[in-house]
Each structure stands twice: as structure tokens, then as C-alpha cells.
Amino acid sequence: MSSEFDRARRKQDSAHAARQAAATLAPAQADALRDLIPNHRGASVTRLAAPLAAADPGMRARVMTRLQQTCGNACAQRVADQAQRAPAPDDHAAPESAGASLFETERARPEDAEDMVGLVTPTAGTHDEVVALRTQYGAAAPHRTLAYGFTAWSPRRTATFPNVNIAWQAAGNKWIAVVQPTRAAIGVITARYVKPDTYAVPGATRRASYPQCQPPGKRVPLFSKVSPAMAQLAKTAEQEHCDDYQRAFNLSLKRCADAINAIAGRRLGPGTRPNIEQRILRQIGGKTPRQWVQELNRLSRRSLQRDDGAHRLNPGGDPRTCPADCSKIICTTVRSPTTRIPGTSSEELIR
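Above: the chain sequence. Below: its structure as C-alpha cells.
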């Protein structure tokens, strides 16, 4: 309870400090600083520092003195440090300070993003190839089962993220904004499933009680035969992940890019930068690009629910055989009690 009170008190003190500091600024700068604390909310250090970056040394010293008196030395020092890093407005800029933009730039776009498209169809491979793909993306190696398939998508590595880039034009003491076009690309999705064959099941053994096995009951490695029908099930399972990720992209990054491009090229304003940015925010669905990335993460994680059991296959089914040298037991891959392939559609799951 005390921590909540302290946070509220610090927020109140920050707002009070901003109002007091604004009293010592030139009128246009004071308006800019007050505009950053609507409804007397606390202003961030970054937003406080921005108008100070353009102030002359004498005015900045007076503001720093007032901040020390109202919010303490540590608070004033943070503002001063940030003001040193804040770029001063261009000579042709309007008197209003830019402040901190509502829209932060997302990750850099890969140079070859134009050639990156989602992979629609999973490809067949050996069990070792599926395990290698899992390892490449940090997934655990299979133990006492087979890795029947794996779908890898790393937006952080290959996707193109949309941005709100704004060309600001001065209009007296106000601003006009022109949103620039943007783009989104899903990047590379790699999906692989096991082709029909017989594979050793990592870490799995069985007791061999066949007549040719001596001594009776000795433990031997377990192998599993994957039939064409079971390989097709594994392919269908990975296709569901591909479809899930495509839908997650469409409902997040692509939707964001489409909304931004719908207003690109229009002249918005005149008005203050914060007010125009809020207008832009409403027109792109009420989320910043960074928040759309969070939506992408939320949606794509829902696909992993399929791996809780719906995509599980059993490597130890019947029929089973044992060769004459009793070197292994060969079982058959079958459905498990929880297998649901095909399962829930992407339209139902990813929302």
C-alpha cells in the first residue's frame, strides 16, 4: 500500500514540478511544457527535457533551480541529463517543442525483407532434420518420443515491422502532419515434418520378451515406424501452425500497416503534435505499432496450445516386431488419446 502511495506522490510531484518549471520558460515553451501534462498528470523526464533542450543557458539554469526546489536534486539531474541528449528543434520548426513522440520506431527492417514471404506448405524431412530445426530455434530435443514436426517463425529475425513515420510541417505556432507509407512482411516460416520411415526413439527402451531374446526381458532400444498416413497427420499439424501464424500476422502487423497506409499522404492538422498523434492513433485502431507487436505475440502464442496434446502422436503402438538379433523393438506410430488432427481452425483459435 505504501508503495502505491509513494508512486502517486511522485507522480503528483512531477506534475507540480512541470507546472513550476513552465512558469520560468518563454511563453511558447511554457505552453509546450504545460501541454505535456494535461489534467495535471505527471510528465515523463523525456518530455520535460525536450523543451529545455532548446532553451538558452540562462533560462535552463533558472528552470533547473526551480526543479531542484520542487522535485529534488535527483529529479532535476535526470531532466538535465536527458536535455543534453535531446536534439534541439530545427531553425524552421514551429515554436512548439516536439517532445517525445507517441510512436516509437520498431525494429530495423531486414535488407532482404522484400523477398521474404510466409511458407505455405511444410516440407518432409528425416527425423534428424526435424530435430536440427528444433535445435536451431532453441526448442528442447525430443525424449522418449519422436519429433514428428516443427514449425519455426521468428518475427524478430525476419519480419518487417510497420512504423508511423510523420513528416511535420510548421504552420504558425502549430503543426501539420503527413503520415508516410509503411509496410509489413511476415518473413520466413519454416515448417518440417517426418517423412515415412523407421526411426530410433531418443531415450526410449523396451523389455524384449521374444523367444530370440536372451536373457529374456533385457532392455533394447525402441524404434517407431512412421507410416504415410501418420506422416500426413504430422504435415497437417504443422500446416495448422503455419496457418495460425499467417492469421496472427494478418490481424496485427498487416492490419497496422493497412491502417497506416489508409491515412498516408493526408495532411492532418493544424494542431499540437500530441493532439495530432492522438488523432493518428485513433485512426490506426487505438494501438501504437509497438502495441500491435504485442498483439502479434499474444495471438501467435495461442498456436502453441495445439502442442499441449492435440498434436501428440504415440510412437509405441501396435503392431510391434523384434528382429532375429533382438537388437531393438520396432513399434508403430499411432494416434494418442489426445490427438486432434485436424483440430480447431485458425479462425477460431487465433482471435
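The chain has two domains: 2-85, 113-349.
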